[in-house]
Amino acid sequence: MARKLKIVLISLGIIIVVLVAAGQIGSALWNKATVRAVAELHRGRTSGEAKVFTGQELAGLPAPVARYLRMALKEGQRYIRSARIVQEGELRLRQDDRRWSLFTAHQEFTVPPAGFVWDARVRLLPILSARIRDSYLAGRASMRGKLFGFIPVVNASGTPNLAQGALQRYLAEMVWFPTAFLPGQGVTWTAVDDSRALATLSDSGTTVSLEFQFNKRDEVAKVFTPGRYRQVGGDYVLTPWGGVHWNYEERQGVRIPTGYVVVWYLPDGNFDWLKGLITDIRYEFEP
């Protein structure tokens, strides 16, 4: 009996060592792929004019949008060229999941053109983690996911549905680099009422719109679309989707929300699938 137990323990030890080694190799390969994606993101970046924000630019914008931008930006604020963001939080993949999984993520954005790379590590179990990378590069979206950084679980790219969803996400997350909302940066605004406005963005043949809802402090409190593609089984189904933003703080002279929740609005109730916090942000400004 003791001999059998010893063999079992040795076998388990070997399996753990192999998994750890494979995970380290997989993580190194994953990180290299992320570095390549970020390099591609910045290769597509264009040098804009050396512009600074002035209140005169807000003429003609819907009233709640103008109030928001006056709140978020200071007179003389240089335009943001790119942003690097560190996030942490928790997520769940199914509405009936009772347990949330912790994640940390690094994300980079460029403007213009629209683009991002989001690289996350999700802790599923004490010894089991997953890597997730979402990107939107030169009008093409992709989603990758691997256990231990080397066992594929998600691999999708290049479809119009993905491109639309990625550009909707980008538009929603522009609250973290709000000079991108200013006239001439690609977004057009349509008034809805005194607390809502519709933002429309086009890139590489894809056009998306989101409704932005503003609170009494002139902050973006919610974004919403009645149709973002959600994977259900093997199909993609247009589903109401949005985000909630709060806890505005000033970072490098710009006021941004540091807390957020991403929500699918399903027929049987809201599915809050990701709750996040911005722990660090760094901007590169136009010269």
Describe this structure in words.
The chain is of the alpha+beta class and 287 residues long. It has one domain (2-285): outer membrane lipoprotein receptor (LolB), chain A, CATH 2.50.20. It has three helices and 13 strands, in the order ααββββββαβββββββ. The chain has a 13-stranded antiparallel beta sheet with strand order 6-5-4-3-2-1-13-12-11-10-9-8-7, sandwiched between helices. The longest helix has 42 residues, at 2-43. It is globular and about 55 Å long. The model is unreliable at 11-19 (pLDDT under 50).
Task: Walk me through the topology.
Layout: H1 2-43, H2 63-72, E1 80-91, E2 101-110, E3 115-125, E4 128-137, E5 140-147, E6 151-157, H3 160-173, E7 187-193, E8 196-203, E9 206-214, E10 220-232, E11 235-251, E12 254-266, E13 269-285
Antiparallel strand pairs: 1-2, 1-13, 2-3, 3-4, 4-5, 5-6, 7-8, 8-9, 9-10, 10-11, 11-12, 12-13
CATH topological fold name: outer membrane lipoprotein receptor (LolB), chain A
Shape: globular
Number of distinct helices: 3
Overall strand count = 13
The portion of residues assigned to helices is 10-25%
Structural class, from secondary structure content?
Answer: alpha+beta
Biggest sheet character: 13 strands, antiparallel
What is the beta-strand fraction? over 45%
Strand order of the largest sheet: 6-5-4-3-2-1-13-12-11-10-9-8-7
Order of helices and strands: HHEEEEEEHEEEEEEE
Number of domain modules:
1
CATH architecture: Clam
Q: If you compute it from the alpha carbons, what radius of gyration comes out, rounded to the nearest whole angstrom?
A: 21 Å
Report, as a whole number of angstroms, the end-to-end distance. 73 Å
Overall average pLDDT: 90
The CATH C-level class name: Mainly Beta
Low-confidence stretches: 11-19
